[in-house]
Amino acid sequence: MSTVIYPSPIFGPVHSRRLGLSLGINLLPADGKVCSFDCVYCECGFNGDHRPRLPMPTREEVAAALELRLQTMTEEGRLPDVLTFAGNGEPTCHPHFAEIIDDVIGLRNRYCPEAKVSVLSNATMTGRPEVHDALMRVDNNIQKLDTVSADYINKVDRPCGSYDVNAVIDHLKAFRGHVIIQTMFMRGVVKEERGETEDGRTMSVDNTGEEFVAPWLEALSAIRPRQVMVYTIDRETPAQGLLKATREQLDAIRDRVIAMGIPCTASY
Questions:
Q1: DSSP per position, 172-184
Q2: Which of 127, 220, 227, 228 is least surrounded by CB atoms within 10 angstroms?
Q3: Phi, psi torsion values for 223, nearest 5 degrees
Q4: Does residue 9 have a cis bond before it (omega within 30 degrees)?
Q5: CB under 8 Å to 57, separation ≥6 — which residues?
Q6: 192 secondary structure, DSSP code
Q7: What is the pLDDT of residues 146-161, one digit of tens each?
Q8: How far apart are CA 36 and CA 160, in angstroms?
Q9: Alpha-carbon distance 8 to 148, whole Å?
Q10: For residue range 49-78, what is the model confidence (pLDDT) as tens digits?
Q11: CA–CA gap between residue 131 and residue 30 (Å, rounded)
Q12: Are 25 and 85 in contact (CB under 8 A)?
């Protein structure tokens, strides 16, 4: 079973397929995972396998660690292209997410004003006013929307609480274009039950077909994001049986988004 648990609160820099030289900001505990999704493809593994014992880093700890790392990178003459909120789960779960956003923007302005502040999020908290407002202040507000099928979301993204995809789409529309949609496309089959596999049932996780792509395109038309990022599996996954979408499939989906007048990139 795959597990990539990131240091906290700062990790990297790492080279991102989509963002460049990225210095990671992990607002979750350093010894486990805290997420409002439990995706079958998550590189950090399943939530239940990595229950943290340590607390989330405090606002003060995040600011101090980031400033120290930026000072070091300045001395080395290697500044990041982007400061990316990512790591061991959903960054907007942190109770002081909005305040930390302001701290990070301030440090970015002081040490690396050319760098972008990015947030990788699953969109589950976008209905909270303080989260919405904080995301409006970052450069790259990157929100997940793998599909508009509630059945698929429940079996693949696996929300840990109530999740209404139509409400999430409304929250994404409320950004009025200040949002980048990120979508994972993949193929293959996985065992259907969460940890209960005695019956051996499997289900397809293929969301590259027209029955998934067409409604997703309709949602994009309503959201009108400034950009879309389509990608596929890049690392080992905790669930077995997952397959990468093909280059041809991603290119075809990308081209349909571009035809709608929305910039789109594909990462293979």
A1: HHTTTT--EEEEE
A2: 127
A3: -75, -40
A4: yes
A5: 8, 9, 26, 27, 29, 30, 65
A6: S
A7: 999 999 999 999 999 9
A8: 5
A9: 32
A10: 989 999 999 999 999 999 999 999 999 999
A11: 23
A12: yes
Please report how the helices 59-76 and 97-111 are oriented relative to each other, as an axis angle in degrees rounded to 10.
20
User: For residues 123 and 50, what is the distance between their CA atoms, to the nearest angstrom?
Assistant: 22
- How much is the pLDDT for 245? 98
> Residue 254 corresponds to which tokens in the numbers above?
């990308």
**Mind listing the pLDDT tens digit for each residue in 185-196?**
999 998 875 544
Query: How far is residue 121's CA from residue 119's CA, in Å, rounded to a whole number?
Result: 6
d(CA 174, CA 172) in angstroms, rounded, equals: 5
Q: Which two tokens mark 139?
A: 């450069």
Q: Is 158 helix (H, G, I), strand (E, B) or coil?
A: coil
Confidence grade of residue 201 (pLDDT, cut at 50, 70, 90): confident
Task: Report how far residue 62's alpha carbon sits from residue 91's, in angstroms, rounded to the nearest whole number.
Answer: 12
Strand partners, 213: none
Q: How far apart are CA 158 and CA 22, in angstroms?
A: 28
Which residue in this structure is represented by tokens 């994009």?
Answer: 220
Give the C-alpha separation, 69 to 110, whole Å.
13
Residue 18 has pLDDT above 90, yes or no: no
Burial class (CB in 10 A: 0-12, 13-18, 19+), 67: middle
Q: Quick one: tokens of 87?
A: 């790591």
Place of tokens 């209960």: 196
Give SS3 for 203: strand
Asked whether the beta carbons of 79 and 113 are under 8 A apart, the reply is no
Beta bridge partners of 118: 84, 140
SS3 126: coil
Q: What is the rounded distance in angstroms from the CA atom of residue 159 to the CA atom of residue 251?
A: 28
Angle at 240 between CA 49 and CA 144, to 5 degrees: 75
**Torsion angle of the four alpha carbons 30, 31, 32, 34, in this order, in degrees rounded to the nearest 10:** -40
